[in-house]
Task: structure prediction
Amino acid sequence: MENEVQNRSNFTTNIVNIIKKKSKLIYTFVILIIISLASMGYFTHTLESKNKKISEKYIQAGIYLTSKDKINSKKLYEEIILSKNKFYSSLALNKILENELEQKNQNILNYFDILESIKLEKEKKNLIKLKKSIFLIKISKEDEGKKILNEIISDNSIWSGTATELLK
Result:
């Protein structure tokens, strides 16, 4: 029994000694964990804040559009596209196209290029390419539009069937 008490005492003494020797390392590790958690929290908060602002701009642009203020609506939709938001940028371009808010074809093609530069899932990128090809065909750039449609088909996308139909 006395040996057990002495073994426990030695064990705790050894642990305390190890902690004392490695205290700087332990403190550094704890501080790094705290800084990492704080950084992740800040990053998440910043990202959520940006998304909220962009969603508010999208809603405001829709209100302007409803009230026939196409100039302010277009400005907000352009800001949203330029923000490269994964969700709202493509919606903004759709609104610009549907409501013919932009008259310059080159500007619309630039918007498509911005959307294509966003890191998106393969099928979402192919949907943007499909819309771009339809727009190109609409503005009499059929060769470019057909080239994009062939890319979609060769990519075995879920949009391949639609692209094939458009080529007929």
Q: What stands out?
A: Residues 2-119 form one domain. Residues 40 and 152 are 37 Å apart (CA to CA). The chain is about 85% helix and 0% strand. The chain has a mean pLDDT of 90.
